[in-house]
Amino acid sequence: MTTLDNETNKRKILLITPDYMDYTSIMLDGITEYANADTYLVTTTGKKLEFIYRNTFHQIQNFFSKLILNKNQKKLFYNKAINEKLETIFEKQQDFNDILILRPDLIKETLPFIKNHGKRLIAYFWDSFSRIPEGKETIDYFDKFFSFEPKDVKRHNLLFLPNFYSPDLVIDKNKKTHFDLSYVASYDDRLDILEKILVSLSPLDLKTNINILATKTIASKNKNEKSITWFTDVLPRKETIRIMNDSNVLLDIAQPKQEGLSFRFFEAMILEKKIITTNQSVNTYDFFNPNNIFIWQNENTVPPKDFFTTRYSPVPGGIATKYALQNWVHQIFE
For residue 172, which of 80, 242, 230 has the smallest C-alpha distance? Predict the structure, then answer.
């Protein structure tokens, strides 16, 4: 695939996104390369944007400010910090060819200001409106609004675009795996489902590698849970890829009220790893193969033992490339 703009003058693109750690860098580099762009970045989450109460009185003061004056000091602080970041960018570059925003609901108040600085305003939403209903309130601000959630696309006449796999994924076919099943995720309300899945799989006597990111308090409380490795710092992407490469099967537990596919499916496609998932919508995708993907519905739906030992059936190249970062960039900025 060729780049989108082969002219001497590169297009100017602004990416506004929560800080998704490595995925932010992957998107930024991908846009720069595949859209042939000078790319700028504004993050809408991070420590510099966290509101910290000075003391208990300050916290009480904010409570009554919200209750009586309808003024949220935390929100005012956040909006001011975002505006300062945007103004710094717009001083350097006043007009952009395209401005791409992820999670536009976080900065709804600043969208009119942002729109004045871009020829096109584009959104990408990799959450569902069922989980984040504020997202649908921003649709009308955008020239193009992409979502990975099929039901939101149909209901709100959006553009469907799944997640992607990145160029840093490299399969090592000569590597011997040490685990039957691996899982890397943050601590949330999916933990109950994880425990049910592990119990249902216990008769298979699998060797598992389960990793959960949590706060120090939560990790400390659960330190006696031997089936799970708890960590308090975000794993470097290279370590996450190493964990996936060291297992025959990956586990994916969908967020409640969400049908869009996580990155795990597309990473597994390139690393040639099978998946056990709770996301039943995956069987509607062109890469679905029951030899590679097992849909877990309840404690009575357990894959056979040979699911973990038989070889992965590679996805045809023409299908796999549809989900490459390069194609994701192309569809957004075409």
Answer: 242
* Surface-to-core class of residue 20, CB atoms within 10 Å of its CB (0-12 exposed, 13-18 middle, 19+ buried): middle
Mark the ranges of the chain whose per-residue pLDDT is less than 50. 1-3, 5, 7, 50-55, 57-58, 60, 62-65, 67, 69
CA 173 – CA 153 distance, rounded (Å): 37
Same-domain check for residues 94 and 224: no
| Span 255-293, pLDDT tens digits | 999 999 999 999 999 999 999 999 999 999 999 999 999
| In a shared domain, residues 131 and 43 | yes
Task: Name residue 165's beta-bridge partners.
Answer: 324
> Using CA atoms in the order 25, 26, 30, 32, what is the torsion angle rounded to 10 degrees?
10
Which pLDDT tens digit goes with each residue over 33-80? 999 999 999 999 876 554 343 445 445 454 444 545 455 566 777 788
Domain end residue (candidates: 104, 128, 161)? 161
- 121: Cβ contacts below 8 Å, ≥ 6 apart: 99, 101, 111, 114, 115, 141, 142, 143
Q: Which amino acid is at 331?
A: Q
Q: What is the CB neighbour count within 10 angstroms for residue 325?
A: 22
Q: Do 193 and 255 form a contact (C-beta atoms < 8 A)? A: no
3-state secondary structure of 276: strand
Q: Which helix (H) or strand (E) holds 146?
A: strand 144-147
Integer angstrom CA distances of residue 270 from 9, 49, 252: 34, 36, 16
